[in-house]
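From the pipeline queue, job 12 of 40. The input is one protein chain; the requested action is below.

Action: predict structure.
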Amino acid sequence: MLVGGRSSRMGRDKARLPFRGSTLAQWVAAQVARAAGCAFLVGDPLRYGDLGYPVIADNWPGEGPLSGIITALRHRAAPWLLVVACDMPGLTAAFLGELLAAAKANGSATIPTSPGGRMEPLCAVWHGDALPALEKAFAAGTRKIADAVMGIRPALYPVTAPLLFQNINTPEDLAAHAAK
C-alpha cells in the first residue's frame, strides 16, 4: 500500500488520519491483508514504522505514486501484487479479492475503471512482468501512471460502485466519508 504522499490539500498526513478506530492507512492496509493474505507499506520507514505493517522505503521519494508502484514490484514476494493508495477507505476486502481473482486471468496488470470509464491505477493488481515497462517509462521521465501503463496494455476491470475509489483528499472529504 502506498503511503507518504504530500497530503497538500488535507494539510496533514492522510495516512495517519484517525479512521474507524485506527488510522486511515491501517484500515485500508487491513482490507488489503484480508484480500491478499498480507500487506506492506511503501513510504518512509521512520515515519510509518509504527503502523503495524512492514514498511519499504520508496526508491524515489517525492516522485509520485508510479515510483511507489515500481518499488513495491521490486519487493514483491509473489508473481501478482495488489497495490492501493492509503486514501481510499471505500475499498473492501471482498472487492479487492474479486480484483485479485480477475487479475490472475489477465496479463501484466488489471486496473479497475470507475463507472465513468476512468482508470483507477491506484487500486490495481500488477504482475511482475509489468516491472520492466514501468521502469523504462519512469526512467524516460514519465510520472503519470496512466501514461506508463500504455506500454503494457492493462486489462480493464469495469466497476459500477463509484464509492470504492472515493479518495480522502480534504478535511471536507474526510467529514463526508465519516458521515456515511
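Job complete. Residues 28 and 140 are 32 Å apart (CA to CA).
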